Amino acid sequence: MTTMELLTWVRGPGMTIAIILMLFGVVVRLLEMLLLGRKKDLSVARDPASAKYGWRTVVTRSLPSFACLKTVPLTFITGYIFHVGLLIIVVFYVPHIMFIRDLTGLEWSGLPFWLIDGTTLLTMLAMLVTLWYRVWDKVRRYLSRFSDYFVWMITFLPVLTGYLLYHRQFLPYNEMMIVHIVSIQLLLISMPMTKLMHTFTFVFSRWYSGEAAGRKGVKV
Amino acid sequence: MSTSIQRGIAAFKQQIDAPIASFFNSCVHCGMCAGACLFYEATNDPKYTPINKLEPMRRVWKQEYTFWGRLAKTLGISKPINDAELNEWQELLYDSCTLCGRCSLVCPVGIDLVYMIRKAREGMVASGHAPKGLKESTSRAMTIGSPMGVTLSTFKKQVQHAEDESGIKIPFDKQGADYLLLMSSAEIMEFPEFIGAMAKIFKQADVSWTFSSEAFEATNSGNQIGSSDLAAELVQRVVDAAEKLQVKNVISPECGHSYTAIRWDGPNLIGRAYKFNVIHVLELLDQLRQEGKIKLEGLDKERLTFHDPCQIVRRGGITQEPRNLINSVSSNFVEMPCSGISNWCCGGGGGVSANPDADELRLKAFAIKKQQLDSAGAKKLVTSCSNCRNMLEDGIEEYEMDIEVIGLTELIADHLKE
Q: Which of A70, A195, A202 sits opposite B35 (nearest CB)?
């Protein structure tokens, strides 16, 4: 198989397989979670329309809040940078948009290359600081398992390989493109198997908390 | 595997629902909950990080309710939890958690850690890993009717004292009264002035109320230790008495955990809605004040501050009412730093005060409350939970501080217009 043939396979059937595996895995994981069910709360809610507090929390937990709650500034700032950074890179980099267009037919405007380039650098920097903090800080080190480091690596690789690809570094373009796409596929396949599931489940966990507090008249 | 651990695992399994699965699925080990925890902040020991307290339950969830966990368990890669581990976690799930809920506020993915810790305690009880002190208080609650061993005759004697002091006849078992007032053991034994205060307030407001000789105790040790069966029985006693007397409302006393048990958990524990309303005493007092049914006079000029009981404010939604009441009798009310729903716990909620194993750690953690009180610079500390009040007095004595602790209901009664 030539490099070109491999690239064609990876971009085409390879990517389809990865996406199907990811979607299947995520659906299974969400079902095994949701099918556990939740008992109806029989206490009288202060506001029976408590679902809105759930949605409120889904949004507000993305905002910095509770000035008196000691949050770790480093976790807070780097967390914002790399989450927003990843979103910008995936959604607003023109070649990514073209790839998604080929896959789904949907299309939107991208951001200039220089902006994506800067965002990528900043995202990688924030992720490196996150990793350093996980190793250095005693609470994070205490909590961390192999899976935490694995998840970091599997998220970092597509960003790094994408950056190297754009700047024509390390490997010839086609080879690097293969490495980049495979790293993305690894990320996709890992989603349902690892803590990357939080990408999907955070909506549920925030909603459950917000709804439960909201029915008691507490806005969290 | 021992029978006790099998019972424990079964109890953990029974408690795991979709919210818990979503919480474990979403946790990325960011560690932010550590900084919100009283016990981590006081010790800087990472084992007190709230999410770590749930490690046994997480493992049961993973091994029993996830595809990959079940696979790993079948292949023998992951080991089930054992007695030694649960023994180690006893300190983390009981001594170092007051169910205060501060951690639940800070989690970026919205994990309600308290919801899980309360449920994890069910597994600890079932496997025989609850602390001795809590087992004893729960046993007293089940057999005598009160975790502190208060009998009906002791209660009646305290009521008699209140009648003698106030000159007001206090009703017992009055059929069809509007309100049935519950008490906590600590109020009966250590702060009995609460009884007289309520009698005076209700007399002025012309409220139809009663005590029940069949159910006067609101403290729910079953909830604190983590036994839904026992908690349900304790709630049922109140429900039976209230429905027998056909009262319209049941008043939760100041005690925060009593409020959570009777107001929010109760119907779920007994499996049905009540035929009466539950109202916290502070909600009722503020309502009576707003309606002009209680008339207050005189403003306290001494600088005073308010300690927010976790279960009443952060977990109960009663934040403004105590402030309205205090402002109606004080001209010098100051908030302590982090007041309201972010306030720090007294250190003794969630069964910690009934657990002597936790005393040393609890008093160490009081250093945070001391800092708050020092910043507020108040001469008087008002609170609205008898357990908080006990814990605050204990901490103030330990740290040799000069601040008087007073109950909010008594403060209001002291300012009633004659």
A: A70
- Bridge partners of residue B333, in order along the sequence: B304
The alpha carbon dihedral of B388, B391, B394, B398 has a sign of negative
Q: Which domains does chain B possess?
A: 3-130 (1.10.1060), 135-290 (3.40.50.1860), 304-414 (3.40.50)
Query: Which residues between 112 and 151 in chain B have a beta carbon less than 8 angstroms from any beta carbon of chain A?
Result: 112, 115
Q: How far apart are CA A135 and CA A144, in angstroms?
A: 8
Nearest Cα of chain A lies from the Cα of B7 at a distance, in angstroms, of: 20
Compute the distance between CA of residue B80 and CA of residue B68 in angstroms, rounded to an integer: 14
List of chain A residues whose C-beta atoms are within 8 Å of the C-beta of residue B25? 29, 33, 197-198, 201, 204-205
Distance CA(B136)–CA(B134), nearest Å, equals 5
Q: Which of residues 168-207 of B touch A (CB under 8 A)?
A: none
Please tell me the distance from the alpha carbon of residue B188 to that of residue B161, in angstroms, as a whole number.
Answer: 11
Q: Do B19 and A205 touch (CB under 8 A)?
A: yes
Can you give the pLDDT of all 418 residues of chain B as single tens digits?
788 899 999 999 999 999 999 999 999 999 999 999 999 999 999 999 999 999 999 999 999 999 999 999 999 999 899 999 999 999 999 999 999 999 999 999 999 999 999 999 999 999 999 999 999 999 999 999 889 888 999 999 999 999 999 999 999 999 999 999 999 998 999 999 999 999 999 999 999 999 999 999 999 999 999 999 999 999 999 999 999 999 999 999 999 999 999 999 999 999 999 999 999 999 999 999 999 999 999 999 999 999 999 999 999 999 999 999 999 999 999 999 999 999 999 999 999 999 999 999 999 999 999 999 999 999 999 999 999 999 999 999 999 999 999 999 999 999 998 7
B18·A36 Cβ contact <8 A: yes
Residue B268 is nearest to which of A37, A43, A75, comparing CB atoms? Answer: A43
Rg (CA), chain B: 22
Determine the residue among A63, A68, A76 to mutate to test chain B binding: the one whose Cβ has the most chain B Cβ atoms within 10 Å: A68
- Could you tell me how many CB contacts below 8 A there are between chain A and chain B? 177
The interface pTM score, or ipTM, of the predicted complex is 0.94
Q: Is B412 exposed, middle or buried (0-12, 13-18, 19+ CB in 10 A)?
A: buried
Q: Are B46 and B40 in contact (CB under 8 A)?
A: yes
Residues in chain A: 220
Contacts of A69 in chain B (CB under 8 A): 35-36, 102, 105-106, 342
Distance of residue B71 Cα from the nearest chain A Cα, in angstroms: 12
Q: Which of B26, B44, B318 sits opposite A198 (nearest CB)?
A: B26
Nearest chain B alpha carbon to A72: B32
Give first-to-last CA distance, chain A, whole Å.
56
